[in-house]
Amino acid sequence: MKIGIIKFGGSNCDLDVYKSLTNLGISCDQVWYKESLSDFDAVIIPGGFSYGDYLRAGALAARTEIMSSVCKMSMEGKPILGICNGAQILSEAKLVPGTFTTNAYPKFICKWVKLRVTGTSIFTDRSREIIDIPIAHKEGRYVVDKKTLQEMYDNDQVIFKYVDDNGLPSTDANPNGSIDNIAGISNVEGNVLAMMPHPERASDALLGSTDGIAIFQSMANYLGKF
Amino acid sequence: MLYHANITIKLKKGMLDPEATTIKKALKHLGYNCDNLKTAILYELEFEAESKDKAKGLANEMCLKLLANPIIHDYSIELQH
Questions:
Q1: Helix (H, G, I), strand (E, B) or coil at B56
Q2: Rounded to 5 degrees, what angle do the CA atoms B51, B53, B57 make?
Q3: Which residues of chain A does B69 touch, with a Cβ-Cβ cutoff of 8 Å?
Q4: A97 to chain B: closest CA residue
Q5: pLDDT at A226
Q6: Residues A188, A27: Cα–Cα separation, whole Å
Q7: DSSP state, B12?
Q8: In b/e form, how buried is each residue of A196-225, taking b as 16+ CB within 10 angstroms?
Q9: CATH number for the domain harbouring residue A55
Q10: DSSP calls for A30-94
């Protein structure tokens, strides 16, 4: 079982993802976006600035040929995780509903946040309920129409919310104006997760949190590694 | 026939436009008081099409498939022969 970490021109978090997975003993490889995904059983699309965020963040990467393979894999039930720019790419590719756009206060926000796990997916069944993971983005505000949002709640697709120290999705806890403090969402089946926070930056005690590990472990567990 | 298109992409009515808010504040700081400031993106392009209708159709497709995000954007197309 091997996880493919896709690199686009401008992706810059692929190595951190690779190191986090490798430290956990999870087999993975970085894949240049022009290469094939046939060797892989799951995909992680890492953070960064693919195509320089030109047009809209993730818009151009979402329309590359490799994303047809990602789409096919997602329909086969394989795990697909999009982190930050990866989440933007998954939403632009319409693998998850809604979109991520400019933060309500339009600056690049880089800070630790608390997330509550609010939904079921193959990435979160071993995670603690409230986790500490950092964000680093300027286009992280989640936007979706009310009707689709209700369907997402009905289908258990709202996976992470920004919460305060009391575990509540308060306005103060919302770093970017996302609707309902949403930080991560999945597809209906729960095998595709798009999250703005960076679990690979919370996978080493030296960095301040190891709460990201459970997300990668759940993914590997699903793949039958453990 | 060669067509020239001006495609304008705007945020949907009611959508938060943080950049517009910031620009408005900056203008005020310089002494200019403005209301209803909105940002838009203009794409100018040229392409071949058999007719104006076909050109409109192609420009529309370009918007729906790439240039606009239908969740947050409206767009308008101006065509010149």
A1: helix
A2: 115
A3: 56, 59, 92, 99, 101
A4: B71
A5: 45
A6: 27
A7: P
A8: bbbbbbbbbeeeebbbbbbbbbbbbbbbeb
A9: 3.40.50.880
A10: EEETTS--TT-SEEEE--B-GGGG-SSTTTTGGGSTHHHHHHHHHHTT--EEEETHHHHHHHHTT
Q: Where are the domains of chain B?
A: 2-80
Distance from CA of B79 to the nearest CA of A (A): 21
Q: How confident is the model at residue A224 (pLDDT cuts 50, 70, 90)?
A: confident
- CATH superfamily placement of domain B2-80: Phosphoribosylformylglycinamidine synthase subunit PurS (3.30.1280.10)
Contacts of A90 (CB under 8 A, 6+ apart): A45, A58, A62, A80, A82, A96, A192, A194
Q: Do residues A192 and A80 touch, judged by C-beta distance below 8 A?
A: yes
Residue A164 reports pLDDT greater than 50:
yes
pLDDT value, residue A126: 61
Confidence at residue B50, expressed as pLDDT on a 0 to 100 scale: 96
- pLDDT tens, B19-60? 999 999 999 999 999 999 999 999 999 999 999 999 999 999
Largest alpha-carbon pair distance within chain B?
50
| Contact yes or no for A3/A21 (Cβ under 8 A) | yes
Domain that holds residue A145: 3-222
Interchain pair A105, B66: CB under 8 A = no
Q: Which of B66, B67, B72 sits opposite A99 (nearest CB)?
A: B72
d(CA A162, CA A173): 6
Calpha distance B26→B21 (Å, rounded): 9
Interface test mutation site (partner A, options B72, B73, B75, max chain A beta carbons within 10 A) = B72
The domain total for chain A is 1
Is the pLDDT at A225 greater than 80, yes or no?
no
The rounded mean pLDDT for chain A is 96
Tell me the average pLDDT across A180-202: 98
Which residue of B65, B67, B72 is in closest CB contact with A143?
A: B72
Q: What is the pLDDT of residue A125?
A: 72
